[in-house]
Each structure stands twice: as structure tokens, then as C-alpha cells.
Design goal:
The chain has helices at 4-26, 29-60. With 61 residues, it is mainly α.
């Protein structure tokens, strides 16, 4: 089962892409920057979740 961080990170990444897109459409530089920051945060959180999954799987062996 996927770690909660992976799911939450993926959702945050998608939300960031949407936020960045809305910022581009509206010309809102702050919103674009927030969207990019959310994407980075989501990717990091997803990576942490992946590491947790790998450790958990290694412990089961």
C-alpha cells in the first residue's frame, strides 16, 4: 500500500500545476510562483513517501 505522503504529495503537485496555470492565464505572478512552490513541495513529499515505502518493503523481506 502506498504511503500517505506519496498520495498527498501527488495531490499537492497536481494542485500546484493547476494554480500555476491559473496564474499564467490571469497574469498573476504571485499565483504562478505559489503553484511552482506547491509542485516542488509535492514532489519532495512524494519522494519521502517513496523512501518510506521502500524501507517498509525491505523490512518485510
Amino acid at each position: 500500500m502506498a504511503d500517505h505522503d506519496r498520495i498527498e504529495g501527488a495531490a499537492k503537485n497536481i494542485g500546484g500545476k493547476i494554480k500555476e496555470g491559473v496564474g499564467k492565464i490571469t497574469g498573476d505572478e504571485k499565483l504562478k510562483a505559489e503553484g511552482r512552490a506547491d509542485q516542488v513541495e509535492g514532489k519532495v513529499q512524494n519522494t519521502v513517501g517513496g523512501i518510506k515505502d521502500a524501507v517498509r518493503d525491505a523490512d518485510k523481506r
